[in-house]
Amino acid sequence: MAIAGVILFAKSIKLTTKFTSALDIPVEFIEKNVKLRGRLCHITEKGLEVEHVPISLPFLSSLQRKWQSNGVLLVRLAGVELTPNAVVWLQEELKPAEMMWFQLLGREDLVLDCLILVNKGRFFSVCLNEEILRQGLGKTTRIEGLHHDSPLYWKLHKRLLQAELKALKKNKGIWKEESYFEKLRDHISNNKFVQKLKQFANWLRIHI
C-alpha cells in the first residue's frame, strides 16, 4: 500500500508540475496525447505562446506556487497551415489571458503540435484547428508527431479535411472565388491596349 501511495504521489507531481519548456514535458505525456490546460499569452505567426496552468491540489497549492517558474510554451495548431489572415482572426477572436486546453500530438524541438480547444459557454467548446479551416483561413497539412498509419491520425485528419471542405463549399477565405466584375477589372487593367492608353494619357499630362 505504501509503495502504491508513493507511485500515485509521483504521478500527481507530474500532473501538477508547471511546464515552461516543451522539453520538460515527459515523453509518455506526448505518446498518450495528454490534454494540458493553459493561459494564452501571445499570438505569433509561429503559433500560440501559452502559459501552462497545471492541476492544483489543495495540500500542495502553496508549495506549487513556490516551485513554479516563469516561461511559456509555443503551441502550434497541428495539421493546419495558417495564412496571415488566420493570425489576425485569432487575435480578434481570442481574449487576452484566455484559458484553453491543448492536446499533445507531437513535439519538434521547442514547439508542440496540438489540438487547441477553447470553451465557448458552459457546455460548448471549439477546436481552433477545425475552426481556422472552416473559416477558410488555412489549409490542411500532415499532422506532425502522429504515425501516418495510426487510427488517431486518420480520425483527426478526416475532421480537418471535413472542416476545410465546408469553407471550400461556401467559398470562404482563401477559397473565395473572384466575382465576375473583379475578373473583368483585372482583365481590363492587364490589357496591353488599355495600358498604352494610360501611358499616352500620362504623356499628354506631362507635355501639355
Automatic annotation (TrEMBL):
GO CC, any one term: extracellular space
Keyword Nucleotidyltransferase: no
Entry annotated with the keyword Transmembrane helix: yes
Localisation: Membrane
Recorded topology in the membrane: Single-pass membrane protein
Major location (coarse): membrane
InterPro entries: C3orf33-like, SNase_OB-fold_sf
Keywords carried by this UniProt record: Acetylation, Membrane, Transmembrane, Transmembrane helix
TM region(s), chain numbering: none
UniProt protein name: Chromosome 3 open reading frame 33
Organism: Chrysemys picta bellii (Western painted turtle)
Gene designation: C3orf33
